[in-house]
Structure formats: C-alpha cells, structure tokens
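Hi C.,

You asked whether I'd gotten around to modeling the 22-residue construct. I have! Everything is below, sequence then structure, no commentary in between.
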Amino acid sequence: MAYDQNVQYLSYAFWQIVMTAG
C-alpha cells in the first residue's frame, strides 16, 4: 500500500515537472 502511495506521489511530481518544464 505504501508502495502505491509512493508511485502516485512520484507520478504527480513527474507531471508537475513536465508541465513546468514544458
């Protein structure tokens, strides 16, 4: 369960970076 939460957080952070960089 903690693993899933980490994946969601990393995905969210990744998209934030993509949107900011893009």
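If it helps when you're writing up: Helices lie at 2-21.

Thanks,
B.
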